[in-house]
TrEMBL record, chain A:
Residues 2-232 form the ABC transporter domain. Keywords: Amino-acid transport, ATP-binding, Nucleotide-binding, Transport. It holds the Pfam family ABC_tran. GO terms for biological process: L-amino acid transport. InterPro entries: AAA+_ATPase (IPR003593), ABC_transporter-like_ATP-bd (IPR003439), ABC_transporter-like_CS (IPR017871), BCAA_Transport_ATP-bd_LivF (IPR052156), P-loop_NTPase (IPR027417). It comes from the Bacteria. This is ABC transporter ATP-binding protein. CDD domains: ABC_TM1139_LivF_branched. Belongs to the ABC transporter superfamily. GO terms for molecular function: ATP binding; ATP hydrolysis activity; branched-chain amino acid transmembrane transporter activity.
Automatic annotation (TrEMBL), chain B:
It is a multi-pass membrane protein. One of its GO terms (biological process) is amino acid transport. It comes from the Bacteria. This is Amino acid ABC transporter permease. InterPro entries: ABC_transp_permease, BCAA_transport_permease. The chain crosses the membrane at residues 6-27, 34-52, 58-78, 93-116, 136-160, 181-209, 221-251, 258-277.
Length: 232, 288
């Protein structure tokens, strides 16, 4: 239902993505992995039209999105959790999640229902957004995205800077939330363990180009690919 | 003494009525709108066209003020479409220059439409009286101004802090990019804020019409104090602007009694000292 073809993306005059093509099916969970600076964030932002200048095809549920602004894309069921999470500091955790409902309107889930899905959020639901740890922020950001009932949720490096125990919890919660709501997932990651827990197949991006596509066992069968594009 | 304070509060609320729209547009769009005073003046002229020099009734006076708010709100919409919206993504200096240009255009338009003559306006019936409590003499219009200022403040504060529209506007003010990613139509919300700010300017023009000398220089009259109130209140902070306006009014009024020969001095000393001690503004944060 998401089809991307020949996607180029630019910041000013510098081209960051070169002819990227990917697809994500209904309810499918797919990872984009690649090193720092490979273009993962640029790709996700391009899909939301939220930053880089873009040319090429972004087709969503059969519709070519062209230059549709990001808030409209949200209403069509796309949702992005940016890598810096961007929790609102002036309202509580619950209100951050409720915000998605007032923003997107329509059939969004009430904050209370969403919070139940994320056990970590229950004790902190009335805390101001400005006073959260990195892991808590990430949970809130994912919960806020889920509240809008996206058909495709995009997470940009959710595990960055998180403690291992939080990463495990996050993997369980993200996967469960997608399965329960039927949302597809497009996950940008450098943490291969986490990406593998959450998704069924992956793309590898390097210097703004897709250099590998396949399922996780296929990656195991291609150690040279892993060595070349993912080893640090 | 009490008289001085009440008089000062009335001045303060007049300042606040002008400052409210200024701080709103600054809080959400980060625009220092130099043209705000000019639109305040246009509001005053619009109300004057409806009520004349001797407003026949309190109701017509209030109605004229609301009409002024609506007309100026519509002008805000036009200004947003033609000027402000085009400059949202460029350097702030352009915005400053543009609002200054709008100010000049408005002043020119006012002279063309209403001429350069002076007009003075009396308070409407019921507000042209005085309340006498013991030895205290309070003009009803001053009491009305204080009440109206408080009313506008409470309404704005509730709208911003208690309604979802207000919370979304605050979210835009904090992080418009992320707010858009949550599905908010940010451009429309920004236009709404501009219109609201201009409506407040127009409303203030109508409400403050009595006891004014209406002329094409009216635009500057409250603007300086209003800007000071916005800065002292903490840019974009409604509550701060409210308290700062009241303080400024009282200081002005006290200094005109105590230091009648050097008007304004106390205010400037206060501003300088305040900014040295508390450069972040009254409540220390720049959120709405
Ligand atoms: N706002 C920007 N302006 C100019 N260049 C940018 C901008 N953002 C990113 N870039 C450049 O685009 C390239 C891809 O960056 P991007 O953030 O998409 O990589 P990434 O894969 O998300 O990396 P990371 O893992 O560090 O988040 C990098 O070379 C980066 O320097
Ligand atoms: Mg990134």
């Amino acid at each position: 239902m998401l089809k991307v073809e020949r996607l180029d993306a630019f910041y000013g005059d510098s081209q960051v993505l070169h002819g990227v093509g990917i697809t994500v099916g209904d309810g499918e969970r797919v990872a984009i992995v690649g090193r720092n600076g490979a273009g993962k964030s640029t790709l996700l932002k391009s899909l939301m039209n939220a930053g880089p200048r873009v040319s090429g095809l972004v087709e969503w549920q059969g519709e070519n999105l062209r230059d549709m602004p990001s808030f409209r894309r949200v209403r069509l069921g796309l949702s992005l959790v940016p890598e810096d999470r961007r929790i609102f500091g002036h309202v509580t955790v619950a209100e951050n999640i409720e915000m998605a409902r007032y923003a997107a309107g329509g059939n969004a889930l009430p904050a209370a229902v969403v919070i139940e899905r994320f056990p970590m959020l229950v004790p902190i639901k009335d805390r101001p957004g400005g006073r959260l740890s990195g892991g808590q922020q990430q949970m809130v950001a994912v919960a806020r995205a889920i509240a809008a009932r996206p058909k495709l949720m995009m997470l940009d490096e959710p595990t960055e800077g998180l403690a291992p125990v939080i990463v495990e919890q996050l993997a369980r919660d993200v996967k469960a939330a997608c399965v329960e709501t039927g949302a597809a997932l497009l996950l940008s990651e450098q943490n291969l363990w986490f990406a593998r827990q959450c998704t069924d197949r992956l793309y590898i991006i390097d210097s703004g180009q897709i250099v590998f596509s396949g399922d996780w066992p296929a990656l195991d069968r291609a150690p040279d690919v892993k060595q070349r594009y993912l080893a640090v | 003494m009490l008289f001085t304070i009440i008089n000062g509060l009335a001045t303060g609320m007049a300042v606040f009525l002008v400052a409210a729209g200024l701080t709103l547009i600054f809080g959400i769009l980060k625009i220092l709108n130099f043209a705000h005073g000019a639109f305040f003046m246009i509001g005053a002229y619009v109300a004057f066209m409806i009520v004349g020099s001797n407003p026949p009734s309190l109701w017509l006076f209030l109605l004229a003020s609301v009409a002024a708010g609506l007309v100026v709100g519509a002008l805000g919409f036009i200004t947003d479409r033609t000027v402000l919206r085009r400059l949202r993504d460029v350097d702030e200096a352009y915005m400053l220059i543009a609002t200054f240009a709008v100010l000049l255009i408005c002043e020119g338009a006012v002279k063309l439409i209403w001429g350069v003559n002076y007009a003075s306006i009396n308070p409407p019936p019921l507000l042209d009286d005085a309340i006498i409590v013991g030895s205290l003499f309070i003009p009803t219009y001053s009491a009305f101004l204080i009440g109206f200022g408080v009313l506008v403040y409470v309404a704005l504060d509730l709208a911003i802090h208690r309604t979802w529209l207000g919370k979304l506007l605050q979210a835009i003010s904090n992080d418009s990019w992320m707010t858009g990613l949550l599905g908010v139509n940010v451009p429309v919300a920004l236009t709404l804020s501009v219109v609201a700010s201009f409506m407040l300017a127009g409303l203030a023009g109508g409400i403050l019409l009595p006891n004014q000398t209406l002329s094409p220089v009216l635009g500057g009259s409250y603007l300086l104090l209003a800007f000071i109130a916005v800065i002292i209140g903490g840019l974009g902070d409604i509550r701060g602007a409210f308290i700062a306006s009241a303080l400024l009014g009282v200081i002005e009024s006290a200094s005109s009694v105590l230091l009648p020969n050097i008007p304004g001095l106390a205010t400037y000393v206060f501003v300088v000292v305040f900014l040295l001690v508390k450069p972040q503004g009254l409540f220390g944060s720049a959120s709405t």
